[in-house]
Amino acid sequence: MSATSGTTLIRAFARSIGEGVVELLLRRGRLGSPPA
Predict the structure, then answer these.
(1) Model confidence pTM above 0.85
(2) How far apart (Å, rounded) are the C-alpha atoms in residues 9 and 1?
(3) Coil, strand or helix: which one is 21?
């Protein structure tokens, strides 16, 4: 059970990070230039 719950937490964590990265990329694309 601990292994399954651990995998679920890892997947949820990776998913949240992925969404954050995508959002940052979209914002950067909208700005047109990456922040220095």
Answers:
(1) no
(2) 12
(3) helix
